[in-house]
Amino acid sequence: MPPLGRAIIQNTAEKIAVEAGYTALPVCPKTIAEKHDILVQAKPDAAKGCSGMLVRNGEQFGILYATHIRSEGFQRFSIAHELGHYFLPGHPEAVLKNGIHQSQAGFVARDRYEQEADVFAASLLMPADLFKGAMRKAGDGLEGIIALATAANTSLTATAFRFAELTKDAVAVVISEGGTIVSCGYSEKIKNLAGRGAMPWLYGKPVPTDTLTARFNAAPGRVAAADREESALYMTDWFGLGDGVRGSEEVIGLGGYGRTLTVIRGNLRTDDDFDPEDEADDDEYLADRWTPRFRR
Ligand SMILES: [Zn+2]
């Protein structure tokens, strides 16, 4: 079976959340599993690399989720990932050949079924309509992402990627570990930095020197202490693109994971933002162009 398109996966997940009656965050994957007669149990002795399992015994399905990562957000994501294998077309046949499937949830696996189940999990826990509704109240940048993670009861990492996918602002989210970039997500608007070209592929690349993230990751203890800092930047510092475009870089240590979340926002204006009929828009445009954005 060919890989499933992103839109099909997201629509499948969001339809299931809507049918389960959710009209606001958070969505509970355990409740959804119960509605579909799937047994859900914690599995304290799960091997470290395994986030959860989907098990089939005749017509009965069960989900076991690992607890070695204590974060409730991660455990909920793991359950939602297994639900992806249950609901997505072609998955049960492909992953349950032996009646049992061991997962690596959390955007780390290269296997297509694992990636598809991760996309499903993010959309099930953060359906676009509900998430956008919460975004309007949550604020911008890292502060907004933290508020949304609380509202959706999801991990900061999963929330940050969903935020980048759905925000109208020019945002990049980057996960790094030490001097290396582990993953990166771009909002639609930030892609304008690249014009007709493509934004740089940052996976596995070094964290650019002379950025707040590089200094933050090099300082002992700051990541583990879940420390936080913000600084102004030029977008070229990170992407080598967008000469003279200013922005901000916000950094938070992800504690025991040893990783860092960076949220980069560009003060980018595109033609679609500008409505010449709208005087307020005109003022906002000028204010945005001329207000110095260097904040501490
Ligand atoms: Zn899996």
Summarize the structure.
The chain is an alpha+beta fold and 296 residues long. Helices cover 39% and strands 20% of the residues. α1 (6-19) packs across α5, α3 packs across α5 and α6 packs across α7 (141-152).
Distance between the termini: 51 Å
Major sheet: 5 strands, antiparallel
CATH architecture of the largest domain: 2-Layer Sandwich
Give me the strand/helix succession.
Answer: HHEEEHHEHHHHEEHEHEEH
Description:
The chain has helices at 6-19, 29-35, 72-87, 91-95, 112-125, 128-138, 141-152, 156-166, 212-218, 235-239, 279-290, and strands spanning 39-43, 52-57, 60-66, 100-103, 171-177, 180-186, 228-234, 246-253, 260-266. With 296 residues, the protein is of the alpha+beta class. It has 2 domains: 6-125, Arc Repressor Mutant, subunit A (Orthogonal Bundle), CATH 1.10.10; 169-290, Beta-Lactamase, CATH 3.30.450. The strands form 2 sheets. Strands 6-5-9-8-7 form a 5-stranded antiparallel β-sheet, with helices on both faces. A 4-stranded mixed β-sheet has the order 1-3-2-4. Helix 1 packs across helix 5 (112-125) and helix 6 (128-138) crosses helix 7 (141-152). It is globular. It binds zinc ion. Residues 81, 85, 101, 103, 114, 117 line the site of zinc ion.
Give the SSE layout.
Elements: H1 6-19, H2 29-35, E1 39-43, E2 52-57, E3 60-66, H3 72-87, H4 91-95, E4 100-103, H5 112-125, H6 128-138, H7 141-152, H8 156-166, E5 171-177, E6 180-186, H9 212-218, E7 228-234, H10 235-239, E8 246-253, E9 260-266, H11 279-290
Helix pairs in contact: 1-5, 3-5, 6-7, 7-8
The structure holds zinc ion.
